Amino acid sequence: MLVASFDASVLRSTGIEILNQLWANDISAELAVDSRSPEDLLSKYRDDQHYWIVIIKQDSILKVKTMGRKEIQDADITISQLLPWLTSEIRDRDQRDGISDRVKLVRHTSQSNASSAVENEQEVRLLVAQTKSKKSNRRNLVEQAQVRAASLVHSFLDGPILVIETTDHVLDLIKETRLSDADSWRKVSQSVTTAEKRYIGEIHDVMKNLAFSNKDNTRNSFIYNFRTGACIYYDLGA
């Protein structure tokens, strides 16, 4: 799905909120570049293969265009209706096209790198030892590896999420810290302004509390910067 608006400020606020909502529900999507009109937008993405384009209109009403299906009329819906509508459309599309569940690797890209979101079959390389082990069907091994990898990644989502407001530079500094290394957090505090030092201390305290309360459950966690939409993985056990 391509998320677009002809108002640059709306695109970078409501558009990013919609994008994060789609990503959180495993829907491949990207943010469009600035465009002046529907014609301008479609000309810029003529060679892309988006199944839907959602255009944010006034009063947060969304116009959803189904690409390549002239018999399907554009849908005018609210933001709260987008996910239910999209879930139903995806189900109908997959049933119509005979698409079964597949394990895929989805890479989400931002507008800043000027490339499209990519959804590809996950690459698997098979290296078999030179022994007289029982031969196995290569396709079965590939599918088993994909399923186990997906299961492992999905288990990470059991971890807690801390939502903060800062710059991505500070978020990158936090990413390099470890809860077992107080000096690493001290370096972050020394790298920010005086006004931010207290906030960094509060973030550190919350992460320590999360580590303690989840010590018997998981060491996986995430920190989401709602100011920019960036998110990092954080190991509570490191």
Write up what this structure looks like.
This protein is of the alpha/beta class. It folds into three domains: 2-118, Rossmann fold, CATH 3.40.50.800; 122-156; 161-235, no CATH class. Helix content is 41%, strand content 18%. The chain has helices spanning 8-11, 14-24, 38-44, 79-97, 138-156, 168-175, 182-191, 194-213; strands at 2-4, 30-31, 52-56, 61-66, 75-78, 104-107, 118-121, 161-164, 220-225, 230-235. The strands form three sheets. It has a five-stranded mixed sheet. A three-stranded mixed sheet has the order 8-9-10, covered by helices on one side. Strand 9 (220-225) and strand 10 form a beta hairpin. The longest helix has 20 residues, at 194-213. The two termini are 37 Å apart. Mean pLDDT is 82; it is low at 99-119.
Based on DSSP secondary structure assignment, what is the total number of beta strands? 10
Q: How are helices and strands ordered from N to C?
A: EHHEHEEEHEEHEHHHEE
Main sheet strand line-up: 2-1-3-4-5
The global form is globular
Strand content: 15-25%
Radius of gyration: 22 Å
From the 3D structure, determine the CATH topology of the largest domain: Rossmann fold
- Low-pLDDT parts are 99-119
DSSP helix fraction: 40-55%
Please identify the top-level CATH class of the largest domain.
Alpha Beta
Class by SSE composition: alpha/beta
**How many structural units, i.e. domains?**
3
The overall pLDDT average reads 82
Q: State the distance separating the first and last CA atoms.
A: 37 Å
The description of the largest β-sheet is: 5 strands, mixed
- The DSSP helix count reads 8
CATH superfamily annotation of the largest domain: Anticodon-binding domain
In the CATH hierarchy, the architecture of the largest domain is 3-Layer(aba) Sandwich
